[in-house]
Amino acid sequence: MLPMHSAFLIFASFAAGGLVNAASTEQVGFHTPGKQMKPSWGYTNCGEPTDIIQLRSLKVTPDPPQPGKNLTITVEGEARETIEEGAYADVVVKVGRIKILQREFDICEEALKANASVTCPVEKGEYTVTQTVELPREIPPAPFTVELRGNTVDDDPLVCLDIFADFRK
Ligand SMILES: *[C@@H]1O[C@H](CO)[C@@H](O)[C@H](O)[C@H]1NC(C)=O
Ligand SMILES: *[C@@H]1O[C@H](CO)[C@@H](O)[C@H](O)[C@H]1NC(C)=O
């Protein structure tokens, strides 16, 4: 739930920062089956059934995401236990295979900053979280991946998610 929209916010603000421009000319392989059917975005839920957050779905509008437009992200998931302050996420953002960002984020703090509809402590239960971010117009035409690994304050696995988006035409 929370970590995802943080990842997108991070990704969006990073793209806006223009830091990705240097790397964007590198057209390294993007792991998608078959050139014709290349999806423009997607995600892999790399979590375990024992993780505290169980993702049900992740949708975006418009689909596919469009630079210069508002992107609304809707995530459905379940918190199997209460998520306390101190939960964190390790986020790696790559353009092609080039790592452009690696950072640890305080999930609860990011949720507050983003005015998320859900704040810590997050009680056990089913959630639908919707977040809108304005995607910068100048996102380079390149494949991005956001690798997100969330953990509780006690280092128990919270969520594992890989998101990819390809802005090549
Ligand atoms: C995105 O939404 C905000 C708030 O509703 C609005 O002010 C802004 O103009 C929108 N941006 C675009 C590109 O539509
Ligand atoms: C969150 O809300 C505050 C107060 O309404 C506003 O100043 C701030 O810009 C908002 N932040 C985001 C990321 O929307």
TrEMBL record:
SUPFAM superfamilies: E set domains (SSF81296). Residues 1-22 form the signal peptide. InterPro entries: GM2-AP_sf, Ig_E-set, ML_dom, ML_PG-PI_TP, NPC2-like. It holds the Pfam family E1_DerP2_DerF2. Residues 43-165 form the MD-2-related lipid-recognition domain. GO terms for molecular function: sterol binding. GO terms for biological process: intracellular sterol transport. Keywords: Lipid transport, Signal, Transport. Belongs to the NPC2 family. Catalyzes the intermembrane transfer of phosphatidylglycerol and phosphatidylinositol. Monomer. This is Phosphatidylglycerol/phosphatidylinositol transfer protein. It comes from Favolaschia claudopus.
